[in-house]
């Protein structure tokens, strides 16, 4: 008689891929300096190089918050599937 192996949900899910993209995108945008190492177009007198980076501060905040909320939802769903209590 053979034992049936425990079926576990996959570790890499579409939601987790979205979370990873949300967290990696700001790094890629900031490390690819050649894409924003210029002065034009200026925005209210601020060279592109500076306002682009400041814009990414706001975008990074939104992406990190999105990743966190998706992670919380994913963890609650996994707990419910396991039969645990959700918070």
Would you kindly provide a written description of the structure presented here, covering whatever features stand out?
This protein is mainly alpha-helical. Helix content is 61%, strand content 0%. The protein has two helices and no strands. The longest helix is centred in the last third of the chain and has 35 residues, at 48-82. The chain is elongated. The two termini are 40 Å apart. The mean pLDDT is 88.
List keywords for this structure.
61% helix
User: Low-confidence parts, pLDDT < 50 over ≥5 residues?
Assistant: none
Q: State the helical fraction.
A: 55-70%
Main β-sheet description: none
Hey, roughly how much beta strand do the residues contain? Answer: under 5%
- Rg calculated over all Cα atoms: 20 Å
In short:
The protein is mostly helical.
Topology of helices and strands:
Blueprint lengths: L13 H18 L16 H35 L5
